């Protein structure tokens, strides 16, 4: 995948039928986009009747276009008193509209309130999955930007209904051929249906070959017929063992750890109808590494847009959306200094990050930085504890502090958490281990894959430079809002010293001086904080299930997992930026909801990845 997506060019010269010059086709029938959506896609899939009484219903669409099918489906869900509890609409689009073109497409049209909400949440046009929430999370648009073939391989979900709505097969054959239809079938839930305005014979043959029973139905407007189908394969496909939901029927969960990871898991699980209890050994929430007075969050950019860049981008955008929904005040915007930015990088980056020359970066930061920078408008800084408290409040979770979990015991129907004396603390069908370094004894199977790192940050009470926006590079600087600045941070592996060290303060102040362009660092600060990060060798977190007893499989996706047990940990120094996405991934893997992260990125954060790599390594 590449960072940016080529947006659509839309010809609006005929308001009744916006067209794509690239494909030589219109986006919808002249008789009306919403009427077409209701007849062809809702009616052709038996909606709203088929979602009634369901906990969750998943629609998968090929071709988001102008978004009218999503809006019509959302509106039908709103109007239905017997609607499903949660509606997930997954749509793939290779050439999404720019924000201004989407606004033009919906100006003065019906469903203006819904259109306005879609426009408010419209993401930057970067590749990958974008999870947009509406109705307090009960309606979700999972928008996959990129080539349909790649995106179908990346999706982790089962769909109940398919909307086949690309441009005409003669104009856009890749969205209708055998390969793509097989890709859709791999995501079909038992009894899934499909509908399209097209009656292309090759497409109908491909549906039949993929296990669908295909029929013709009355068409819309000038089209006398349309295609409808029902998934009824001869042999029921099996989901890979590593993709089976870990607690699909759980309505209660216990989360161990009341920091950023635990709070985010509680928030995400609560939106899936799971009531959470958050347990922590300390006296309150955000008392360990999440207790720092300030911290950064932002994405990353690299030339090949590899797993680290893609995961950090997805996480940063998820954080931006979460903070907006929670209404949590924070410092907006972040500069990350680079030793150099090539013209190719600067030309190729847009959407969610802006390359700035040294002069422009200096003007934004309020000092002579001397280096170019990436500017992340959606990044920034905040107090981690405030974020934790907001997440816990929004989740409605029950909290229990001063309760140290010493071990877990598997039992019929779930897990029991025991204290040091062997007394039960709690029991639930789903347990999520979401603590930091103090939780390592509970992660014995992963102990060799984890590093505990000491970090110290420093406070400059009367700072010669308070950055107008947070600045990162060789260290970081964050204004404290009172004329001072936080700067840091050091990192020493396997260092248990809890005392503030003058040598570490000096190191932090040197970095601050280099960022600020000062000739000498300011006077030594009087305050700071020591904490410990838990991290992995590849600097990605551990999110997912643990291996079931027995020999390991040779692939992560084939590895069976212990039911009802998950980990969400090893956030290193990126807890603020990773928490929102990590919590959503935990919730999706637990209950079987569509996952907001691509399949290869799930592999990249899988807790068992190191064990399988060791197994594959030839004996020496």
Kindly provide the radius of gyration, computed on alpha-carbon positions and rounded to a whole number of angstroms: 25 Å
Q: Approximately how much beta-strand content do the residues carry?
A: 25-35%
Q: What's the total number of strands?
A: 29
Q: Name the shape in a single word.
A: globular
Report the average pLDDT across residues: 94
Q: Give the helix/strand class.
A: alpha/beta
Helix content class: 25-40%
Quaternary structure of the protein: single chain
Stretches with pLDDT under 50, minimum 5 residues: none
Figure out the total of helices. 16
Biggest sheet layout:
10 strands, mixed
State the end-to-end distance. 36 Å
What can you see in these coordinates?
By secondary structure, the chain is α/β, with parallel strands linked by helices. It has 16 helices and 29 strands. The strands form 5 sheets. Strands 13, 14, 15, 16, 22, 23, 24, 25, 26 and 27 form a 10-stranded mixed sheet that branches. It has an 8-stranded mixed sheet with strand order 5-6-4-3-7-8-10-9, with helices on both faces. The chain has a 6-stranded mixed sheet with strand order 17-12-11-21-29-28. The protein is globular. The model has no long low-confidence stretch (mean pLDDT 94).
